[in-house]
Amino acid sequence: MTSTARPLDAGRPPAEAARPADNIPRGIALMIGATVLLTLSNAFSKHLVAHYPVGEVMFLRSSIAFGLVCAFMLPATGLSVFRTRKPGAHVARGLSQAISQTLTVLALGLMPLAGVTAIGFSAPLFAAVVAILWHKEASDPVRWGVLVVGFLGVLVVTNPGADSLQVGALFALGNAVMYGTVTVAVRGMAKTEKAGTLLIWQMAVMAAAHSLLLVFGFRWPSGTDAALFGLLGASNVGAQYLWTRALASAPATAVSPFYYLMLVWGMALGYLAFGEVPNLHLVVGGVIVVAAGALLLWHETWTRRAGAGRTAAPRIRARRPEAGPPRLARPAAMRLHRPEALILSRDYAA
């Protein structure tokens, strides 16, 4: 939790002055690890979808991941981890993720690894647009300007004039739209549902949904490819776990910018494993999308903090004495000033 400096923070209890659980270096390391595993998962998917039906790839990816999650979680939690008051929301979230990941794998079969990654970075931009249009969130010229620039970057990456990239780019854009839209629709679930419940419901619904794709074909994998399928499921679960731990270890504003390292890993692994040489459109467009996403994150954070600062003073002025432990006496020097101007702690507020 990040907080602005206040004159009397030194006199506050430690729990209010700073959150001891924050460990930014650890959070950054976990986020970097998550991006590496996500890139490896995409690379495994790209290789396997070139030799096996997409439905088989998606089903084995999801079912192996679900099996690993159950193996690690159920011995400690039992079936209580499935307990929820929002089963419909979990099903909707899982189905949306199933569709989103399927579109990603389809795009990986048609586009360079780094290109799919760069277009995926536009998901926060779509989420911002949906939040403005659907939830009627307030916007300003800066926010709209960032969105316009970000979408221009997506156009540069997709390079509409190149026929060979059009279909794959549409799949990648579909993934970004789906992911961004659902992020807005279910973002409140994290406030009421446990992380383990969110994860196991998502994996269960995705495995069930992807099983329906087996009607499009199934080929028994070779020994080597069976091992790759296992690594695909493990990397997918590992990435989800590290991602969750990163956000629990440090503020999102500190760790989220490192998510964009996926573009670097995607370019490097695409070149080493698939011989994909990044072109100028990918590099320039990727940089634009990353910059727009990072600027949007900074702008949203700054706007929330500014709004919180404006509403803090009226709440302090409106506070009335309540029955309870006696308040600390105000130092004489402080009585000469307005408490709201000094942004005093609760113990000194009138």
Low-confidence stretches: 1-20, 330-350
Number of domains as seen in the coordinates: 1
User: Which H/E pattern describes the elements?
Assistant: HHHHHHHHHHHHHHHH
- Amino-to-carboxy terminus distance: 27 Å
Q: DSSP strand (E) fraction? A: under 5%
Q: Care to count the β-strands?
A: 0
SS-derived structural category: mainly alpha
| Mean pLDDT level | 76
Tell the overall outline. Answer: globular
Helix percentage range = over 70%
Q: Biggest sheet, in brief?
A: none
* Assembly level: single chain
Q: How many helical stretches? A: 16
Cα Rg: 24 Å
Task: Describe what this molecule looks like in 3D.
The structure is a single chain. By secondary structure, the protein is mainly alpha-helical. The protein has one domain. It is 71% helix and 0% strand. It contains 16 helices and no strands. The protein has helices at residues 14-17, 24-49, 54-77, 87-108, 113-120, 123-133, 141-158, 163-185, 189-192, 195-211, 223-249, 252-255, 261-274, 280-318, 332-335, 339-342. Helix 4 runs antiparallel to helix 8 and helix 7 (141-158) runs antiparallel to helix 14. Residues 1-20 and 330-350 have low confidence and may be disordered.
Write the layout of secondary structure elements.
Layout: H1 14-17, H2 24-49, H3 54-77, H4 87-108, H5 113-120, H6 123-133, H7 141-158, H8 163-185, H9 189-192, H10 195-211, H11 223-249, H12 252-255, H13 261-274, H14 280-318, H15 332-335, H16 339-342
What is shown here, in short?
The chain is mostly helical and 350 residues long. The chain has 16 helices and no strands. It has one domain (20-217, 229-310).
